[in-house]
Design goal:
Elements: H1 4-15, E1 21-27, E2 33-43, E3 47-53, E4 59-65, H2 66-70, E5 74-78, E6 83-85
Antiparallel strand pairs: 1-2, 1-5, 2-3, 3-4, 5-6
C-alpha cells in the first residue's frame, strides 16, 4: 500500500518545479509509452496539473496523481537537468 510519507515527498518535490518545463512519460499499457512536454501549473492535495503544449500553438491542462509517480505509471522528468523523479516502485491495491 502507498505510504503517505512517500506521497508527501513526491508532492513536496513537484512543488519546487511550479512554473518549470518538464517532460512526462506515461505508461499506456502493452509497452506503449507517450511523452508529453509541459509546464507544472499547480500542486494540490492529491493531484498536480501540467499545461501541455500541443500542435499549432494549442495547449491543454492535464492532471496527474502522486500515486501515478509512486507506481511508475508516470515518469516526471525535469527538462533542464533531465533529472527523473523515481522512487521505489510500489503496488497500490
Amino acid at each position: 500500500m502507498a505510504n503517505t510519507e512517500s506521497l508527501k515527498e513526491i508532492k513536496n518535490h513537484i512543488e519546487k518545479y511550479i512554473g518549470e518545463e518538464i517532460s512526462l512519460v506515461t505508461d499506456r499499457g502493452k509497452r506503449k509509452m507517450k511523452t508529453r512536454n509541459g509546464i507544472v501549473k499547480n500542486v494540490f492535495r492529491n493531484i498536480f496539473t501540467v499545461e501541455i503544449s500541443g500542435e499549432f500553438g494549442t495547449s491543454r491542462t492535464a492532471s496527474f496523481s502522486y500515486s501515478d509517480i509512486l507506481t511508475q505509471d508516470v515518469e516526471f522528468i525535469i527538462s533542464e537537468t533531465e533529472e527523473n523523479l523515481v522512487l521505489e516502485k510500489v503496488d497500490v491495491l
